[in-house]
Amino acid sequence: MVEKPSDPDLWVKSERGPTDQKSNTTEEKCNMIEEETQRFVVEKRKKELKITVKQLLGDDDEATQDMENDQARLSVDEEESEMIFQDKAERKAFIKKSKRRRAVHWVNKMLRKNHKKKITQTYVNEELKGFRLVRRRDSGTEVTRAEFEQEKRARLLKAEEERKKINENWLRSQKEKSKNKRLQNIQKSNV
Predict the structure, then answer these.
(1) What pTM value is reported for the model?
(2) How far apart (Å, rounded) are the C-alpha atoms in residues 191 and 189?
(3) Among residues 3, 31, 119, 122, which one has the fewest Cβ atoms lying within 10 Å of its Cβ?
(4) The pLDDT of residue 16
């Protein structure tokens, strides 16, 4: 069967169905046209969403500024860890020395990326689907999708802050343990 073009004006001209009499019924042709129309609408909506997302990420409106502020808060994680270490190379070498530290660092990095992706997605959903009503699972009340996304973003930012604190405390304790272990090894070698 020949593929139909995505333009609905060309459908009638290019439609060549099978030679069976059963498949050429008017009802089936209408169904085929409706399906193609729905596909066309979906493709058009996807293109509009891509353009909207690009505009959202590229414009200097309030949502983009809020998103940039949140992303700046997410990137502060590495700056805070530099307070414990003198530079990034020292931090990287410290993490690389231990298998446990590498594993924890990898999990931490995945969590950070996941939070960042989800927070960005909340801005997109708020912009595109903000007018819709959503029923809450816990209380059964209805709120707009924009309100729901704002609450979700607040929870995610809180979880990200908590992750940062845990990571910093863990790195600090690991550095202290490493220092203590080094001192014990030096004392043992001197005795």
Answers:
(1) 0.55
(2) 6
(3) 3
(4) 47
